[in-house]
Design goal:
The protein is of the alpha/beta class. It has 3 domains: about 240 residues, Metallo-beta-lactamase, Chain A (4-Layer Sandwich); about 110 residues, Oxidized Rhodanese, domain 1 (3-Layer(aba) Sandwich); about 110 residues, Rhodanese-like domain (Oxidized Rhodanese, domain 1, 3-Layer(aba) Sandwich), CATH 3.40.250.10. About 30% of the residues lie in helices and about 25% in strands. Helix 7 crosses helix 11. About 45% of the residues are buried.
Length: about 475
């Protein structure tokens, strides 16, 4: 038997395929929605994918259980407490699925969600008593545990889930043999926890030593620690958690419906009617020239997460990409259940080659040039700008440009009124990805004289320019 891990860096998501050479059977756990890699690997090894398991209803991506069911006829397995619209096998503590040398045993481990399960993987050629590995979903991560406060668990309070999580960790997972391999569903960068490791596999023994949440402590101390300082969950998490419960169209069906080339006239008409125009080129290219009113979220970063945070799931999206990049942009939106794509601009920015009246640019400014402007040493530049820091509050408190206004990027549209009118704006994040999004949003909202600070706070700090780290909030 073999366990193969698939890691999707954009969403910090790990999925798994477990195969048996005797029966040539495979099971996939927590698949991403685009399933081609599982199909290709199964075909290459001569395996038939007969089972697909969801450890819980994920909130940060759309799982590929429907796709695998429709494509290869795989049976869907979920926890006994899961309420789903689609046909599935509900599994409780002690239930098993066995094929050849593989036994998959179910351990109900609620806490991140009520229906959460962990999957014990036995290699029967070696032992039918001690599991080789445990696939922990979002219950246990490397260095962390799943947060119990997500709105995905509608109708169950964070306190109730934290109680469940304590029991799942203390009474179940830590009782497994120390040598048991731990394979979680997420790694560093996921919003499903606060201090996930970059490592993607560990052991129960290692986690008992080094994971803060697995140290001996009272129930109340555990609940206090695991609920403190959690990152803000993107708004699309609720959309995805609900969609993962539903019978829905497959990704392939959705892309056939939405992947269509549009003329510039079509795009302008849709934009006027309220469609969201999403430019997925790198920030530098976008700022060199873009369709007025477009929002920039580059494919090169945490594209899906920020698209889910900044876009509405119920309003049409029109994509502008470098030629040939449209399909990837649409597919990656589909990974988070954003199937509301109206199409893409045929020819990309080439379609605007003779329409300079529709194109605007975003100015960029270096950290030293901004420092001179703020110090009044650039009289020719006019009134000094308001510096807007779109990092999280925790990042801001750790160190920021003196006098900067902190408005985390997910709140920028709602709080734009806090930025003084009539003054230039210089916006930054840590390194430049989020500030490109922010600058495009400010321009979309009608703010003029917007500048993106090249290299963000990292460049400012590296230039040894004045910073504050006192945690006091500056106001425009």
């Amino acid at each position: 038997m073999k366990i193969q891990q698939y890691y999707l860096a954009c969403l910090s998501h790990a999925s798994y395929m477990i195969t048996d050479d005797k029966t040539k059977t495979a099971a996939v756990v927590d698949p991403q929605r685009d399933i081609d890699q599982y199909l290709a690997d199964a075909k290459a090894g001569g395996y038939t994918i007969k089972h697909v398991f969801l450890t819980h209803f994920h909130a940060d991506f759309i799982a590929g259980h429907i796709e695998l069911r429709d494509k290869v006829g795989a049976t869907i397995h979920i926890g006994s407490r899961a309420e789903a619209e689609f046909a599935c096998v509900h599994m409780k503590d002690g239930d098993t699925v066995e094929f050849g040398d593989v036994r998959l045993g179910i351990m109900e481990t609620p806490g991140h969600t009520p229906e959460g399960i962990s999957i014990l993987v036995y290699d029967l050629a070696k032992s039918d008593k001690d599991p080789l590995a445990v696939l922990t979903g979002d219950t246990l991560f490397i260095g962390d545990v799943g947060r119990p406060d997500l709105l995905a668990s509608i109708g169950v309070t964070a306190d109730e889930l934290a109680d469940m999580l304590y029991d799942s960790i203390t009474n179940k997972l830590v009782t497994l043999p120390d040598a048991t391999l731990v394979y979680p569903a997420h790694g560093a960068g996921s919003m499903c926890g606060k201090s996930l490791s970059k490592e993607t596999v560990s052991t129960i023994g290692e986690q008992k030593k080094f994971n803060y949440a697995l140290q001996p402590m009272s129930r109340e101390d555990f609940k206090r620690i695991v609920t403190a300082d959690q990152p803000e969950a993107p708004e699309y998490f609720v959309h995805d958690a609900i969609l993962n419960r539903k019978e829905r169209a497959s990704l392939g069906e959705a892309m056939l419906r939405t992947h269509k080339s549009l003329s510039l006239a079509d795009v302008l008409a849709m934009q006027k009617a309220g469609a969201q125009v999403l430019d997925v080129r790198d920030g530098l290219d976008f700022e060199g020239g873009h369709l007025t009113g477009a929002l920039n979220i580059a494919l090169s970063g945490k594209y899906a997460t920020w698209a889910g945070s900044m876009l509405a799931s119920d309003s049409p999206i029109v994509v502008i990409a470098d030629e040939g990049g449209e399909q990837e942009a649409v597919m990656r939106l589909g990974r988070i259940g954003f199937d509301n794509i109206g199409g893409f601009l045929g020819g990309g920015m080439n379609a605007l080659a003779s329409r300079n009246d529709l194109v605007e640019q975003t100015e960029r400014i270096t950290a030293p040039a901004l420092a001179e402007w703020l110090d009044g040493k650039r009289a020719d530049a006019g009134l000094p700008p308001t510096v807007v820091d779109v990092r999280s509050e925790a990042e801001y408190v750790g160190g920021h440009i003196k006098g900067a206004v902190n408005i985390p990027l997910p709140h920028l549209e709602k709080r734009v009124g806090e930025i003084a009118a009539g003054r230039p704006i210089a916006v930054h994040c840590e390194g430049g990805y989020r500030s490109a999004i922010a600058a495009s949003l400010l321009q979309k909202l009608g703010r003029k004289d917007v500048r993106d600070i090249v290299g963000g706070y990292k460049a400012w700090f590296a230039a040894k320019l004045p910073v504050d780290a006192d945690g006091k909030t500056a106001h425009a």
